[in-house]
Design brief:
This protein is an alpha/beta fold. The longest helix is centred in the middle third of the chain and has 16 residues.
């Protein structure tokens, strides 16, 4: 098995906060999160809003705010990364397709941002080709960000990551605002990058699309990983999955009945002991209040003592 390009071990992220009485406390929003991505692989991250998906991307890229405290380790090609390492690799070895289009520089033309201020002929040719695939007209490169629609700006961000030549690409919700044809084309581009030996992390709410483009799916809940499994397991159905939340997520898809489950994802300040899903889980026992490690079950990894 190839060595992982990205490996995240027991990642936790807290924020220094103040309550109404100016009492300081630490709000832990990511807990013991684990993930790895190998060359040639797309790992899609699924989970509800607030589960830590975007924050995970920012932690890996070294983009956390000053009041954040991170523990755990982030490895790139086997080396533990410091904040300086992340800053040095960002934009060259590691690229982020951010969720917010506000990451585009409002004072630079699109062409200058995508291909750099001193591009060679090869870069210019590659930029024109990727723009054509993403249905961006040639004159787009002469525009400024405020002149783009939301969908155009998102496609520009995808093009920027492609042209960076990065070995690790983290795409944070790259398809909202795109029609189905364009979303599929963008995902196909990521598939081609992975097939060329790069590692891709795809953060998405379009779970159905992820099932068909990704190699593995990692399910986040309340800031931690609850299951990582082959995408084929999600296509097979509920019984092929391991964690109760993964099964509930599968049942909540429109084609599977749109079935809701009682309760809600806990707020970071009031996390339950042990399994974070336990207050909503039909399998809950007293043992679920203990710390639950990730274990291997049927070729996947799951954080549940009842998985079989």
């Amino acid at each position: 098995m190839k060595e992982a390009i990205l490996s995240v071990k027991d990642l936790s992220v807290s924020f220094h906060m103040y309550d109404g009485g100016l009492e300081q406390y630490d709000l832990k929003v990511i807990s013991n999160l684990t993930l790895d991505v190998r060359p040639g692989e797309i790992v899609a991250i699924a989970g509800s809003s607030g589960s830590g998906k975007s924050l995970f991307a920012h932690a890996v890229m070294g983009l956390l705010p000053e009041n954040a405290v991170m523990t755990g380790e982030v490895f790139y090609k086997g080396k533990v990364l410091s904040q300086k390492d992340k800053e040095a690799l960002r934009g060259t070895e590691m690229a982020l397709v951010p969720q917010s289009v506000s990451y585009l520089d409002p004072l630079m033309t699109i062409g200058a941002q995508v291909r750099g201020t001193k591009p060679n002929r090869q870069i210019i040719k590659a930029q024109k080709e990727i723009f054509k695939r993403l249905h961006l007209k040639e004159e787009t490169e002469r525009l400024y960000p405020f002149q783009l629609s939301g969908g155009m700006a998102r496609r520009v961000l995808v093009a920027t990551a492609v042209l960076s030549g990065a070995q690790l690409i983290i795409a944070d919700e790259p398809t909202p605002g795109l029609d189905l044809e364009m979303a599929l084309e963008a995902l196909q581009i990521f598939r081609e990058l992975a097939d060329a030996g790069k590692a891709v992390v795809l953060i998405t709410h379009d779970i159905d699309l992820a099932f068909h483009i990704a190699d593995r799916i990692s399910v986040f809940y309340a800031g931690t990983t609850v299951e990582t499994a082959k995408a084929a397991d999600f296509l097979k159905g509920k019984e092929a999955l391991r964690h109760p939340y993964s099964k509930a997520l599968w049942e909540a898809l429109p084609q599977n009945g749109f079935k809701p489950i009682p309760g809600f994802q806990p707020y970071a300040k009031y996390l339950p002991k042990g399994c974070l899903f336990s207050p909503r889980c039909p399998l809950k026992t007293k043992e679920c209040e203990n710390e639950i490690p990730m274990t291997e079950v049927r070729g996947g990894y799951v954080r549940c003592i009842h998985a079989d």
